Amino acid sequence: MPAIHLTEDDFKKAIQSSQPVLVDFWAPWCGPCKALGPTIDKLSEEFKDKAVVAKVNVDDVPGLAAEFEVSSIPTVKIFKSGKEIESFTGAFPQSKYQKVLEANL
């Protein structure tokens, strides 16, 4: 199950979830973002009933990237109940994201 793609309109509602919400800020021209894509999709499948896994294309919604201080991509942010609880800049192994999601279930 691939990650959902968020727009500016549905982003703020999505991060209000009581479940952890992992958001991958990416762009289609970004090599490391493309490399991270399969990891994000695997997390979406693994946590499908326990967490929300989403992507935001920073080219489509640059305002969100600016608002959440995304200056480099890929950046993965994890939210819960509207609050940012973790942020990673760069591509990391799947286990790093899993640990944060599991700790916040």
UniProtKB/TrEMBL annotation:
Residues at the catalytic site: 30, 33
Marked site positions, Deprotonates C-terminal active site Cys: 24
Cited Pfam families: Thioredoxin (PF00085)
InterPro entries linked: Thioredoxin, Thioredoxin-like_sf, Thioredoxin_CS, Thioredoxin_domain
One biological process term in Gene Ontology: cell redox homeostasis
Sequence similarity: Belongs to the thioredoxin family.
PANTHER family: GEO12009P1
Designated name of the protein: Thioredoxin
Organism this protein belongs to: uncultured bacterium contig00016
Lineage, broadest ranks: Bacteria, environmental samples
